[in-house]
Amino acid sequence: MGKKDPRIDTYIARQQDFARPILTYLRDVVHEGCPDCEETVKWSSPSFTHHGLLCGFAAFKEHATFGFWKHELVVGSDRGDAMGSFGRLTSVKDLPSKKQLIAMIRKAMELNEQGVTTPRAPKGSRPPIAMPKELSAALSKNKKAKATYDAFSPSHKREYLEWITEARTDDTRQRRVAQAIEWMAEGKARNWKYM
């Protein structure tokens, strides 16, 4: 059997009652499908590797997720807006059958062994996002935050711009601008918690 990581035992133990059976089941199925896989933690979530990233799971307050690193090549469909490869999981019944899961795990394993990579979307395919006036005004009042923002890569800038422009209410937008300024003044990217 592959290498197990005690951090994943700890991760599973501290999850909600509904999530623990899902995560335990997924962990067992991944090891059954890929006996040589190794466990690790990536982006604060349990992950499984075999000649590269294979798959991983995470638990949240009301649902869990499970996803393949090469989703489109393994599952064969665009995941759309769904989280993970199978959307929001609230019980083991939300997953494909064990036989189907093992087949997918083996496919992911073979893709990694063969060095197959996931095709990337062409660069520059997304239209630019205009700077919200609230963010521009706030940056002009905070030199540290502005210096951080100006030094960001285009992708880091986009993460903040998307987060702020996707706010549905003015109140939410204002809170996000304030949070963004605070984080940028500390030199943090939007998704700093996962880095």
How would you describe this structure to a colleague?
There is one protein chain. The protein is α+β, with helices and mostly antiparallel strands and 195 residues long. The protein is built from eight helices and four strands, in the order ααββββαααααα. It has helices at residues 6-13, 19-33, 71-75, 98-113, 133-140, 143-151, 154-165, 170-185; strands spanning 38-42, 45-49, 53-59, 64-68. A hairpin with a 3-residue loop joins strand 2 and strand 3 (53-59). Helix 2 (19-33) packs across helix 4 (98-113), helix 5 runs parallel beside helix 8 (170-185) and helix 7 (154-165) packs antiparallel against helix 8. The protein is elongated and about 55 Å long.
Features:
8 helices, 195 residues, alpha+beta, four-stranded antiparallel beta sheet
